[in-house]
Amino acid sequence: MSVLDTREWTADGRRPAGGPVRFVALGDSLTEGVGDPVGDGWRGWAAVLAGSLAPERTAVEFTNLARSGALTVDLTTSQLPAALERRPELAAVVVGGNDTLRAGFDIRRTALELDATLGELSGHGARLLTACLPDPGALLRLPAPLARPLARRMRAVNTVVHALTARHRALHLHIADLPWCEERRLLSVDRLHPSAEGHRLIARRFHELLAADGRDLGPAPGGEPAERPPGRAADVWWMATRGTRWVAARSTDLLPGLLALAATEGLARLRGATGRHDEQMARAAAQALASLG
After folding, report:
1. Least CB-packed of 17, 37, 105, 187 within 10 Å?
2. What pLDDT shows up at residue 276?
């Protein structure tokens, strides 16, 4: 995590001529870099993008505040204060997938927390980057009783993200539309996070958005990782060590919630009420946005 000396900056927080580009990333495991291992940690799309944010001889001060398992509420309570201390010029906020995987999913609270985070960052002068996320049930190839309620929740979260992107004039990447299921190499061994190549695809697409926005950037990230992707043995080792712990840590909350969702979905299908549940979730998302004023 970078530490900035803000004495180098102007009183209103603008970057002086020749000063470094300040970039912070907020979010969960996707932005932390899970799926793109380097040493004992992760690199990920945000770090790859940071390396291409400035032309030659201009430094980039990059801070990755994203943490695995983070919910939207974790942004406002912990990541946002740390981000504001760094007075970022660019701020990526990509979150919401974990909210859909929790038993206590509340689209209104998701909207409130995300709106507060984006509003504070943009209010302090940061150019925002946002993204909508793919359906976790489709990525994991879950059976329909589990996949359908997760897809319903993900659509609601993405509806909120799209609306708040417009509200706060962010640059938005449709990560959900990238070919994750068609091109398996873009996904890591856990099928839920991008591979090293997938992370670079995200970084490259964000670079394209920033270039179209008129920013002076460095060369776009390459399409292929500098190192070879891990082989089958490395994939098995990851699942036996990190992957198993990752699944176990979420099972205490996620699995009971998923089973409850599956039971409810099964009853709804028997009663022919699946469509009504879709409508209720869409209505809840619209009400959550309306409550923001």
Report:
1. 17
2. 79
Beta-carbon count within 10 A of 89 CB = 22
Structure tokens at 149: 């309620």
Q: Please state, in angstroms and rounded to a whole number, the distance separating the CA atoms of residues 133 and 79.
A: 20
- Give residue 13's region: left, alpha or beta (phi > 0; psi -120 to 50): left
Q: Look at residue 291 and give its three-state secondary structure.
A: coil
CB atoms under 10 Å from CB of 191, counted, come to 15
Calpha distance 112→73 (Å, rounded): 9
Q: Is the dihedral of CA 174, 179, 185, 188 positive or negative?
A: positive
> Is 112 strand, coil or helix?
helix
Q: In 3-state terms, what secondary structure has residue 124?
A: coil
CA 53 – CA 219 distance, rounded (Å): 8
Rounded distance, CA 162 to CA 131, Å? 8
Q: pTM of the entire structure?
A: 0.85
Which of 111, 78, 96 lies closest to 28 in space, CA to CA?
96
Mean pLDDT, the chain cut into blocks of 10 residues (293 residues total): 36 59 97 91 96 94 96 96 98 94 89 98 98 90 80 95 98 96 87 92 98 96 66 61 57 61 67 75 96 90
Residue 141 · residue 192 · CB < 8 Å: no
pLDDT of residue 5: 33
Coil, strand, or helix at residue 175?
Answer: helix
What is the three-class DSSP state of 196?
A: helix
pLDDT score recorded for residue 255:
61
Question: How far is 147 from 265, CA to CA, in rounded Å?
Answer: 10
Beta strands 171-174 and 41-42 are unpaired
Query: Pick from 99, 101, 97: which is nearest to 131 by CA?
Result: 97
